[in-house]
Specification:
The chain is an alpha/beta fold and 893 residues long. Helices cover 28% and strands 18% of the residues. The structure holds iron/sulfur cluster (3 copies).
Length: 893
Amino acid sequence: MNEITFIIDGLELKTQKGSTILQAAAENGIYIPHLCHNPDLKPIGACRLCLVENEEGRLITSCENLAEEGIVISTTSPRVENARMMITKLLLANHEANCLTCAQNNQCELQKISSFFGIEKENMEDLRRSITDISPDESNPFFKRDLKKCILCGICVRTCRDRLGVNAIDFAYRGDETKITTFLDQPIIESNCVSCGECVIACPVGALVPKTNLKPIREVKTTCTYCGVGCGLYLGVRGQEIITSRGDPEHPLSQGNLCVKGRYAFKFVNHPNRLTKPLIKKNGLFVEVEWDEALEFAARKLSKYKEESFAAISSARCTNEDNYLMQKFTRVVMGTNNIDNSARSCHAPSVAALAETLGSGAMSNSIDEIPHAKCLFIIGTNPNQSYPVLNMRIMDAIKNNAKLIVADPRDIELNRYADIVLQHKPGTDIALIMGMIRVIVDEGLMDDNFIQDRCENYEALLKSLESFDLETVEQITGLKADNIKKAARLYATTESSAIFYSLGITEHSHGTDNVMALSNLALITGNIGKPFTGINPIRGQNNVQGSCDMGCLPNVYPGYQNVEDEDVHKKFQKAWNSQLSPFIGMKMPEMMEAARDGNLKALYIMGENPALSEPDSSNIQKALNDVDFLIVQDLFLTETALLADLVLPGASFAEKDGTFANADRRVQRVRQAIKPIGDSKPDWQIITELAQKMGMKGFKYSSAEEVAHEIAVLTPIYGGILYNHLEEKGLQWPCLTEKDEGTPILHKDKFSTKNGKGKFIPLSYRLPAELTDEEYPLVLTTGRRIFHYHTSTMTGVVTGLKKLYDHDSVEINPIDAEKLGLQDGEGVWVVSRRGRIKAPVELTDRSPKGLIFMAFHSPNTKTNLITNSACDPVTKTPEFKYCAVRIDKDENI
Ligand code: SF4
Ligand code: SF4
Ligand code: SF4
């Protein structure tokens, strides 16, 4: 019996056991005024406005007290009315009420309560007015803090602390001087605030408001164009301009939350620097031309470079429909499988390793399971900076008492909430994970039934564990054996445990082995194929999953159908009415090598910027210069586009229809909000026009939806993914038919390997490709910062983001800095065997001794000039996470 009956204001009401009086009243249409309550936060009963009277005549807070069987409550007794009226009058007395010009006008809880009580100016005459004169804090580029309107409900403080885990603000001072401010009462921009705007959305009054307060004329429901979380949002439009972005409260993963990029970084769409016309390079200078001339030029040039002298790089930012057509163009028009995408530089090891061990290289479980997880093992990923809304779901899990194990060479934000922190030496993940497996085996914590029924190759794994005794593992990882044991026990003995990882695992010269080690760990404990478990690679870019799903890889057609499989090959030849190459094509690093060797003559790059994003980038720029004909299709004149012979202006996510597939295999709609800017066109349309210009049949589509239909027909895992099926919510593949509701959890009854078994892989520890020595004594590892995305092509033109973060600094431990005589902020040269870059140092304990960290966003810093292009032998994924460097002082910087 979960239902209870109780009485409010003489009415007999029913509610679920566990509901608060406030919730129960609201469910039954009874309004109890409140200010400090927010359904996403733990109640604190601070504003006292939700007071109600119980049978004993006591005033109690309805937000904190539960509705219990048989209780009798009054929400309108004279004592309640008096108390609430006095509280409201006191709040209003200290409030600068200029509602008409306040951004919160008509949405303000204080306004609502004041009008509920019918408070008039005369009511206030008996109170001393004492509006504190505090100037608004306008330092943040996106929102304003006007503390004169603050009612001290603490919703912003709790949102920042409990939902974000950021803790940028808190109550300070005492009595009537109490205010909400940052550490040391600095302007908010000086604090650790990440500008997510969640406190702004949650503030019930006008104390925290966006700086731009224009309201849109219409809103279009779509999917965020930045990271792989795939948050749902509404773009607000006035005429042909995007003016707002707000979270979709109904979205199953993001639940209305957004990060700084999703909420505020939409200004790139209407930016004046957008490419609006095709450009042909004539005598070294770009000249604007009409589409017809551009396509004619491309068709003429490309007709000379068919088959192995052509390659294409597709885009993790473009839609599935764009990507599908890019690989079809490469295979059908150009006759080669030389197609790749930026997954090569990030999650190719996940795709390869998990396909081998489990039969599918994607996230096994769903992001919406995270809040209910029992144990999370987070390794080689910093979700706070890279996947902020997924990090909010981790914070939800922590609130629900989930256990947390965090493994990362750096001291990342989540460490503060972890039950066990494993700060291992960089590049030693295999030793750590295999060490944990060794503990599990030694202590008999395996899931024997699961191993016997659903796995193979166990004996081989056991044999390879011999070299991972804890003494050796301690030496390799620098961790205490005790800590490794605790982590192994916690992971293995909690009812369900889930692994989340990203590029800290994959971007190594042994990235594929790292992923296999994690797969071994999940298999040996049976933590896969059921809710709240799994092995979950978090994808970094909005549609990197989709560009792989669409077959923008040299070895597979859409839906991971092998190009070397005879039946598959025949199926696509028939469908596309074309002779297709039976050979696996080149991976991106191989394309660059072929270009430098003169074997690759033409390269077509859509929505990627390898000139900045790939390691040892001067060598990449050489390759791009060496091809005879380079086409770049993008939104802006990127560093790569500057090297092109032909630049084609593509349309952004706000200007076209399509779909993105997020990290948990969820295919979601992208909807056109405005017309393409200038003469730009949706990428899928450009490709079809070029193919037709080259005389090809089979490239006539009237809409993105028609392309999606062809994808569904040829791609079994996308078989039921049609637009009419996606209107309300996304679908997780495999989704085989229109009746299929998708697959939130993979591997439930069997794995997708040929024999249905999960495969253990024996592994050994290998050193990183490049080691430190006397000349290069420090390790450089790279990663992301929350304020920018990839090489800043889009975020770099958003003025507010540039104000928050405009250069890549060198994070260094204070002890290393002292040894080198460096002061915080001092400019230095970071030198590797490949070159040198200059940047200011940032002294921080986030970096352990011997390890420095840099992001790779800034086109001025060009971090990838010095990173190492040594690759994982299986996938050719570069070792971005480890290279040897030194720091040189330079007085002239
Ligand atoms: S915060 Fe509310 S009550 Fe205060 S000025 Fe704004 S709308 Fe009016
Ligand atoms: S914007 Fe986000 S990080 Fe900054 S204070 Fe508000 S909740 Fe905290
Ligand atoms: S977390 Fe990712 S998907 Fe969500 S708003 Fe931020 S960038 Fe967009």
